[in-house]
Hints:
Layout lengths: L10 H12 L6 E4 L9 H16 L3 E6 L9 H14 L6 E3 L4 H13 L3 E4 L3 H6 L18 H13 L8 E4 L14 E5 L13 E3 L1 H12 L3 E5 L6 H10 L7 E5 L11 H9 L14 H7 L3 H11 L10 H15 L2 E2 L1 E2 L2 E6 L7 E7 L9 E7 L1 E5 L19 E4 L4 E9 L5 E9 L16 E2 L2 E2 L4 E8 L9 H13 L10 H9 L6 E8 L11 E4 L3 E5 L10 E7 L8
Parallel strand pairs: 1-2, 2-3, 8-9, 10-23, 12-18, 16-19, 21-25
Antiparallel strand pairs: 4-5, 5-6, 6-7, 11-22, 12-15, 13-14, 15-20, 16-17, 17-18, 21-22, 23-24, 24-25
This protein binds one RNA strand of 75 nucleotides through helix 5, strand 6, helix 7, helix 12 and strand 19.
Amino acid sequence: xxxxxxxxxxxxxxxxxxxxxxxxxxxxxxxxxxxxxxxxxxxxxxxxxxxxxxxxxxxxxxxxxxxxxxxxxxxxxxxxxxxxxxxxxxxxxxxxxxxxxxxxxxxxxxxxxxxxxxxxxxxxxxxxxxxxxxxxxxxxxxxxxxxxxxxxxxxxxxxxxxxxxxxxxxxxxxxxxxxxxxxxxxxxxxxxxxxxxxxxxxxxxxxxxxxxxxxxxxxxxxxxxxxxxxxxxxxxxxxxxxxxxxxxxxxxxxxxxxxxxxxxxxxxxxxxxxxxxxxxxxxxxxxxxxxxxxxxxxxxxxxxxxxxxxxxxxxxxxxxxxxxxxxxxxxxxxxxxxxxxxxxxxxxxxxxxxxxxxxxxxxxxxxxxxxxxxxxxxxxxxxxxxxxxxxxxxxxxxxxxxxxxxxxxxxxxxxxxxxxxxxxxxxxxxxxxxxxxxxxxxxxxxxxxxxxxxxxxxxxxxxxxxxxxxxxxxxxxxxxxxxxxxxxxxxxxxxxxxxxxxxxxxxxxxxxxxxxxxxxxxxxxxxxxxxxxxxxxxxxxxxxxxxxxxxxxxxxxxxxxxxxxxxxxxxxxxxx
RNA sequence: UGGGAAUUAGCCAAGCGGUAAGGCAACGGACUUUGACUCCGUCACCCCCAGGUUCGAAUCCUGGAUUCCCAGCCA
Length: 576
């Protein structure tokens, strides 16, 4: 697709190259395994790009597999959203599966485990299991049910499936080692009872496998060769390998872990993102301030920009937080030649050109993108009264200010030079309009070179101006100077995405909500050129000197045009 | 000495025993009908620290420091 550079070297690609060279694998198969319990965010995009592009580069395959082993948290709404986002990003999966497709196989393998004496039914309560698991430094204690006979385990497990027991009454545990220094190996629970309706399997099951058991088996049966996941699963790898081995799977997939993406000025946690939605802080999962794929799309990001970003940040094992400005770089780059450039006034100040003939209008032909002549030109009206940007005038200019101020002359982009004669004020001393004079000799395109001006400002003809709403965004989080604190925040979301789980800290949710930037949205009402009245959802423009904007797909309507600012233009000038 | 992992510039990151890629950001300058873009230049005598091996070490060895992850019937 287009002129996208291949990813640079990374440790996973090196592993694939070695595996192919050594003959350990003939072709590679990867997979992207989202849990349908929320919408995808830019962090998922990193994993998606990694899996799909890696397989693509080596002529392999990539499956999409929903990790739907926990019916109480999941929903088809999310399945649909995820499918849509992946397609929008531009990827096509080879096979679409659900972990629930393998529930029967998972069950059969559990029976095998029991027969081999590698799994047992435990009657202990969740609380007792936790208490006997030991601590980080002390080994756990064997369950009193650990040495039940194979027959009894088989009988009990079948009755679990048959629905004879209530939620939490029994679990199936892998029999590994209660004194392992790796807590994941201390007889992990692999099946639990949940009398819950499942979005894919309905009421067929009342026992559901745990991720650590289901995932490796799903990988194996699909022939996945390189199972990529994030760093916190490093400790789970021995269990992954145990499951593949003890269940006697034909294929032996291998798990590799990489660092998930973190971005400055935002959060990357489905749980926290959901809390923003639920608290009404944002408009929904697709609010442009959200780092979700849906939010970025509504903000005006393109799939190309997101893919290029994911490629350039690389893949490694060290914990990192990427500067959000890096992401912004890629959307500016992508839209530079694609987006037409037009003038719009976000915060209007009327200007009367006193020596311009009343009742006259002339139409300037202006290129749609000076760097991309293929985009053609358009006609833009100009007359005696125009709007300029309020910030393009200062009665008492700061040093190095070369826009409009009393006595100063500037260029009106694609029109004439104008000189400010007077700032007209109301009774309260507020500037309500400017009186300027223009110089007919300086008409754009005339080749006038008699004198130079330092500044060029944009404008919109007042008589033809079309009202529009502009939404400007700032980071959703207040404080971010302290990257290490941000790291902490992000890190602790990784594992605690369950609402009911209280192992984390309730207090830290509060501190997270305290960090929310209450001024992350600014709404302005201004004007656009008359040529933009037919604009459609997701049309993208560079509004001169302001940045790139996207036509909002939700709130725009006939007679109401809403622009979301995707990203500002860079600027080396700030009015203090 | 519970186990697992990480450490190369402000931020990502390549590097795999032959003398520190690239991108972002920043800072100078040129150009400019966007204070944008583009272009030019600057930005690690050094790779967490200390020893050692070697003709040669970011890469190998030894010891240490710091940071992150793990005690859900979540994924």
